[in-house]
Write a structure and sequence with these properties.
The complex is a heterodimer. Chain A has strands at residues 4-7, 10-14, 19-25, 33-38, 45-50, 56-59, 62-67, 72-77, 86-92, 103-104, 108-113. By secondary structure, chain A is mainly β. The chains are: A mainly beta, B mainly beta.
Amino acid sequence: QQQVKQSPQSLIVQKGGISIINCAYENTAFDYFPWYQQFPGKGPALLIAIRPDVSEKKEGRFTISFNKSAKQFSLHIMDSQPGDSATYFCAATKPIYNFNKFYFGSGTKLNVKP
Amino acid sequence: DTGVSQDPRHKITKRGQNVTFRCDPISEHNRLYWYRQTLGQGPEFLTYFQNEAQLEKSRLLSDRFSAERPKGSFSTLEIQRTEQGDSAMYLCASASDGYTFGSGTRLTVV
């Protein structure tokens, strides 16, 4: 059973456009929702994260929108640039003491065309 | 470089052979995780160490897999009698507040 479902699988956006990636989760115990960016041949790198006590978090061109009642969250990349072309993963976790097991979505491959 | 280091970066092995991967975490991080990532999928949790103690193991970690973290520093992941289905990227992450992933070891079983 996939704990975090991500869509779309791939996305093509023109330079300067807005990229939107969506995720949905089932487990209401999840309380930390990060987004990771992964370039080919590299490990995932933390981009931005949110906790369910806020509905939105913005860092530069990246915004997470969070809808607790719908159990959905999304990543918005404003003014998308070719350098943003990468695979993006949403994730969720419920910390148990010091143990954080992340459940990842299946990824979205973003291609920003110049 | 103070990030998470994984070695080797790539490994091609014949089916049935044993392979061992190494992870050197960020030195002040006492928590270490192994994940497996297959093509087109997100990482899946394999196992967790706090210092030298292996505290959690996924059901994905069959008896052919073993992980160690002697002295709570570097960690090794060994796969015995490799199968083609073991082909994947094996990611190590160390953590204090958040995760820092290494660049992974890509295993190809032929």
